[in-house]
């Protein structure tokens, strides 16, 4: 009896073959393509394991991805990893920076109803806080859409990807 498509999918369902494909995808990183699976399944070793003379089709590779819990998805937003929570940074922030800013806050001009911006009565010399704003533009900004495993949440990631140009202003 003829089974439509049973030969290829059946051999791709083999646990060892599936593990080899998954291992190959892990080596490529999260931005692999369906074509990467097709090319991998077209290597002499995989053709022999699959019992084939030519590689799998695009639809077979897509079917394998979906069947194994992968979806073409937009990258989830997660917090960035840039050192804000390193032990030495947290210690400095809590023991030096925040106490000093709280001390200086007592000498800032503030809005007083009916008066406007003014110093508190006990303050004779104001402190002015200057804030610095910056934007960074990357040569190869992050890709937003890729094959993601179902249930895989957004992962923390480094702030940058590639060379950058930083623009600063006060």
Automatic annotation (TrEMBL):
Domain of life: Eukaryota
Protein name in UniProt: Winged helix-turn helix domain-containing protein
Source taxonomy: Eukaryota, Fungi, Dikarya, Basidiomycota, Agaricomycotina
């Amino acid at each position: 009896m003829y089974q439509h498509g049973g030969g290829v999918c059946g051999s791709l369902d083999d646990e060892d073959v599936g593990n080899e494909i998954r291992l190959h995808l892990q080596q490529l990183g999260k931005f692999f393509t369906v074509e990467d699976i097709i090319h991998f399944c077209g290597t002499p070793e995989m053709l022999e394991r699959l019992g084939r003379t030519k590689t799998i089709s695009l639809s077979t590779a897509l079917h394998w991805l979906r069947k194994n819990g992968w979806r073409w998805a937009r990258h989830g937003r997660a917090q960035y990893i840039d050192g804000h929570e390193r032990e030495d940074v947290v210690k400095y922030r809590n023991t030096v920076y925040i106490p000093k800013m709280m001390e200086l806050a007592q000498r800032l001009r503030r809005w007083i109803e009916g008066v406007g911006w003014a110093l508190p009565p006990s303050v004779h010399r104001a402190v002015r806080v200057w804030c610095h704003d910056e934007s960074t533009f990357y040569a190869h900004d992050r890709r937003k859409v890729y094959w993601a495993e179902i249930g895989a949440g957004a992962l923390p990631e480094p702030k940058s990807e590639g060379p950058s140009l930083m623009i600063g202003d006060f």
